[in-house]
Design a protein that fits this description.
By secondary structure, this protein is α/β, with parallel strands linked by helices. The protein is built from 7 helices and 11 strands.
Length: 230
Amino acid sequence: MARFEELDWQRTPLGEISLRRRYDLTARTEVYEVKLGDEYLMSSLFTASERALATRGLAMVQGEQLSVVVGGLGLGYTAVEALQDHRVAHLRVLETAEPVLDWHRRGLLPDARDLLEDPRCELAHQDFFVAMRREPERQVDAILLDIDHTPNHVLHPSHAAFYTTEGLVSLREHLRPGGVFALWSDDPPDGAVEELLSQVFVDVGAEVVTFPNPLIDGESACTVYLARRG
């Protein structure tokens, strides 16, 4: 087995994106990684917080036959976890990078088949932030967002306008009354982010997700912000 392999490399409007597979000697497992330029975007070695974005977000949602939007496909872990909730009737994943969609369609990723073969799941080539600025065709029960590193560390300058009162008000219109917005962040809880969310939503909170990190022989943590449309 090869220790390292670049499975794909393509240019995108956000920069050069690549998918790599390697065998990690420390963790003793095969790892899939995505890089945008020189930045690491995601790794299959750490999926707990991406999964928690789905489980904790959907735990706040009441009812059955749920309609859910995921912003950012990535390696697919948030979408796969959301589909584990039997109440989800339709899951639409918005991904702006065509290469990422291509990786899943070509079966280059371990969970790709779970998404492609589930009739509830729709993968759409669409910019999440542009979609949220438009009038909604229909409202949904939950929106789960994992695209930027944090609200203050965005992948592209055009994303910054979303993390404002005006941007969040536009997103809120896509939610049904009582619907939930869940946001992933790589930073510890930030009071300024909670205050911003509180200007638009109710029941706002920040939950820390910890997970083992074999690379440092300890734990790492991310944050999931949760908010409800009143």
